[in-house]
Structure to design on (145 residues):
């Protein structure tokens, strides 16, 4: 969801640059912020696995570890659970980083609006969109009340 949001915002900023070329520096600054989502994804790409990979790990665990009683049962269990934790940890970190970028974009829009009233209409829309994203957590995030 965050990746799609970042790409949608980037495209929207491009549209706004065409409509309001005098605000291009503001739009570019906002694109630099939202572009950090892709940077974080690229940084973690090698540690993020597909759902199929995770399913295969769980299937292997059920097939080869759950009922296994050999002398190396503990080490087999630790090995596969460590791999599962690594996948989950990388996902947790990425979701947190992406959420932070959206919050930063929201904050930067507010500061820009205070500094230059000309950007206010665009900044308000940025703030509306970011608030919508932040209030609708991804299925991976816990709902907040």
């Amino acid at each position: 969801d965050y990746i799609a949001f970042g790409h949608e915002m980037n495209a929207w900023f491009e549209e706004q640059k065409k409509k309001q070329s005098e605000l291009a520096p503001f739009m570019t600054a906002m694109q630099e912020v939202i572009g950090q989502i892709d940077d974080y994804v690229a940084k973690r790409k090698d540690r993020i696995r597909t759902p199929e990979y995770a399913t295969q790990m769980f299937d292997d665990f059920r097939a080869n570890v759950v009922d296994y009683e050999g002398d190396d049962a503990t080490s087999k269990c630790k090995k596969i659970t460590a791999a599962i934790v690594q996948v989950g940890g990388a996902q947790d970190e990425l979701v947190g980083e992406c959420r932070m970028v959206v919050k930063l974009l929201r904050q930067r829009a507010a500061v820009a609006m205070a500094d230059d009233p000309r950007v206010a209409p665009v900044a308000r829309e940025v703030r509306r969109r970011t608030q919508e994203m932040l209030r609708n957590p991804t299925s991976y995030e816990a709902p907040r009340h």
User: Anything to note?
Assistant: The two ends are 20 Å apart (CA to CA). The chain has six helices and no strands.
